[in-house]
Design goal:
There is one protein chain. The chain is an all-alpha fold. It has one domain. Helix content is 71%, strand content 2%. The protein has helices at residues 2-33, 38-55, 59-63, 68-83, 90-114, 119-145, 149-157, 185-205, 210-228, 232-250, 252-279, 290-306, 319-322, 327-330, 350-376, 385-401, 408-442, and strands at 169-172, 175-179. A two-stranded antiparallel ribbon has the order 1-2. β1 and β2 form a beta hairpin. α6 (119-145) packs parallel to α9 (210-228) and α11 packs parallel to α16. It is globular and about 70 Å long.
């Protein structure tokens, strides 16, 4: 009976550790392979930490913490609910408000729960996450070098996927025979989101000469598919985040404050910047990528339309509705323009789309929430801050030039990146605490003659 009583808890812990290892290996790998599944892994990863803490006596107290950052983040979806009343598609706007609320709550609850999660569980989760990210990088490299061989095999094998509209695919006799590299841009972005959290976890798990060796291998494994891809936003994110990481090693607080200011300035400068790029005729420069030239046209025309509803915007997620299919045929397209003077399916810029759809009120709320999140990085353990700053830079670079701000996979992918970072942050905090305890225990006790 004594043996049974001792073995069962150990077996239970082993099974739990195994389950977390599987989850955190699959999460970066599967979401890189199939980005649209980030909506599934976000609640799985978040609740994996929340539920055990919540089940403890008074555990709910550990998962509920209100501060200015939390309130700032919750104000954004609250405004989206109100903004939905004048959206072009009210039902979809409400759905996006619900989605954003759920994502914010899951992320905040997971962040609070991670503070009281046991060290061994964090370490195993971090190790599995690093391996999953590395394997995901190898998978994406293979896909980019083989014209998406595995992706094409899956699409052609599963009948459910046949009716999907693959705008970058070439089909022959009902089979997809070619995929453009641009069809893997979402995969590349998800991998880029995972880079700095995985490097942080690796730094805390490995020691000695293996740390720089493994870190270099992981960085190279991720960099190869990013530069093989056509996703220039991820390439820019990688190039920009490396110097940010290096500077944050020396001046972390100043760098974090600069990122918060830069985030707010992006909302202030986005409109004049769009007008200046268009006035400089960047959309007519042949050596620039066609995608960027088209964006210059979309940005300038959308910036003009901001002035039609400057205070409250046209409504959340209304851009795609306002751009009707016939617009392409009726819109003005002067000679040399590679895109008509019209709005796009989305603004390809979070800062501009915020102005257009949410107006001044939305821009202020999102700027404030983002700045508070950025400043919150200064409360993380010191060795974690450069990784967090680099991740925030990646986020800014991708949303400034990438997809529409309401895409589910993108919102959930960013939330997953935050949770991954916080796993490393709390592992660092616990490791530092253990080291401090050991140093304190080794201090000699000085005895005084007057002591009893």
């Amino acid at each position: 009976m004594l043996i049974s009583a001792n073995v069962q808890p150990r077996n239970a812990r082993d099974m739990r550790t195994l389950a977390y290892s599987i989850l955190f290996f699959l999460s970066p790998f599967v979401t890189t392979a199939i980005p649209r599944l980030t909506w599934l892994f976000l609640p799985l990863v978040g609740l994996a930490f929340v539920i055990p803490v919540f089940r403890k006596s008074n555990g709910w107290r550990a998962t509920l913490e209100l501060n200015l950052t939390v309130l700032a983040c919750l104000l954004v979806p609250a405004y989206i609910f109100v903004n939905a009343f004048w959206a072009a598609d009210q039902r979809t706007a409400v759905v996006k408000a619900v989605l954003l609320t759920a994502v914010v709550l899951i992320t905040l609850l997971a962040a609070s729960s991670l503070r009281v999660t046991e060290d061994e569980l964090l370490r195993r989760s971090g190790s599995a996450f690093v391996v999953g990210t590395f394997v995901a990088a190898l998978f994406l490299t293979f896909e980019l070098l083989t014209d998406g061989a595995i992706t094409r095999f899956v699409l052609n094998s599963i009948h459910l996927f046949h009716p999907l509209n693959h705008k970058h695919a070439t089909a022959y006799n009902g089979q997809i025979v070619h995929l453009r590299l641009a069809d893997l841009n979402q995969n590349t972005a998800v991998l880029m989101f995972n880079l700095w959290p995985s490097l942080l976890a690796l730094r805390l798990i490995e020691t000695g000469t293996r740390r720089p060796l493994f870190s270099g291998a992981l960085l190279l494994a991720v960099a190869v598919p990013i530069f093989l891809s056509e996703h220039q936003s991820s390439q820019l994110a990688l190039v920009a985040s490396i110097p940010v990481f290096c500077v944050a090693q020396r001046w972390p607080l100043a760098l974090i404050r600069s990122l918060a200011v830069l985030w707010c300035l992006a909302f202030v400068l986005v409109l004049p910047a769009d007008f200046l790029m268009y006035k400089a005729n960047l959309h007519m420069v042949d050596w620039l990528p066609k995608s960027f030239r088209a964006r210059v046209i979309i940005w300038e025309y959308t910036a003009e339309r901001v002035m039609d509803h400057p205070w409250l915007g046209v409504g959340a997620d209304s851009t795609r509705v306002l751009k009707e299919p016939r617009t392409i045929d009726t819109a003005e397209q002067p000679p040399g323009f590679i895109y008509p003077r019209t709005i796009g399916w989305h603004a390809h810029d979070l800062f501009l789309q915020t102005w257009f759809e949410l107006g001044v009120v939305g821009a202020i709320l999102i700027a404030f929430a983002g700045a508070m999140v950025a400043l919150r990085m200064s409360l993380l353990p010191l060795e974690t801050q450069p990784f967090a700053a680099a991740s925030f830079t990646v986020f800014m670079a991708i949303v400034a030039f990438g997809w529409g701000m309401w895409q589910t996979w993108l919102i959930c992918g960013i939330a997953l990146m935050i949770i991954y970072l916080l796993i490393g942050a709390n592992l660092s905090r616990q490791t530092t605490g253990i080291a401090s305890s050991r140093v304190a225990s080794r201090k000699p006790v000085i005895s005084h003659a007057s002591d009893p």
